[in-house]
């Protein structure tokens, strides 16, 4: 069981953690974190596009990956957006992106 965060340190019965902004930012911007975010984004994009069932010849849902702003520490961001009109209508009627996110 963890005790509350006091003076930048979190203590429990096994370990003590010191929150370091530089090291935590390095983890959030690491290649592994980026790959994990992009993998999840591609899965959501694929599930959302699968729900369109070939009803469109234009792009439906598209994934975008970019670094976030460094206020105060930033993180890698991935978003999936409905870009085609058919995808926007399908998303508005069926909550396609929400359902794709929850698998």
Q: What do you see in this structure?
A:
- It is a single chain.
- The chain has helices at 21-28, 31-51, 85-94, 96-101, and strands spanning 9-11, 16-18, 61-67, 76-82.
- By secondary structure, it is of the alpha+beta class.
- It has a two-stranded antiparallel ribbon with strand order 1-2. Strands 3-4 form a two-stranded antiparallel sheet.
- The longest helix is centred in the middle third of the chain and has 21 residues, at 31-51.
- It starts with 8 loop residues before the first strand and ends with a helix.
- The model has no long low-confidence stretch (mean pLDDT 79).
Count of distinct strands? 4
| Largest sheet entry | 2 strands, antiparallel
Task: Give the neighbour order of strands across the main sheet.
Answer: 1-2
Report helical residue fraction.
40-55%
State the distance separating the first and last CA atoms. Answer: 31 Å
Shape descriptor reads elongated
Category by helix and strand content: alpha+beta
Q: Which segments are poorly predicted (pLDDT under 50) over 5 or more consecutive residues?
A: none
User: What percentage of the residues does DSSP assign to strands (E)?
Assistant: 15-25%
Radius of gyration: 19 Å
What oligomeric arrangement do these chains adopt?
Answer: single chain
- Element order, helices and strands? EEHHEEHH
| Average pLDDT for all residues | 79
Number of helices: 4
């Amino acid at each position: 069981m963890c005790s509350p965060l006091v003076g930048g340190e979190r203590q429990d019965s096994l370990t003590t953690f010191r929150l370091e902004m530089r090291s935590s930012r390095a983890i959030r911007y690491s290649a592994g974190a980026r790959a994990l975010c992009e993998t999840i984004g591609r899965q959501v994009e694929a599930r959302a596009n699968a729900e369109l069932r070939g009803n469109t010849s234009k792009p439906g849902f598209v994934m975008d990956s970019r670094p976030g702003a460094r206020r105060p520490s930033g993180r890698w961001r991935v978003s999936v957006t409905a870009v085609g009109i058919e995808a926007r209508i399908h998303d508005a009627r069926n909550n396609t992106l929400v359902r794709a996110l929850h698998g």
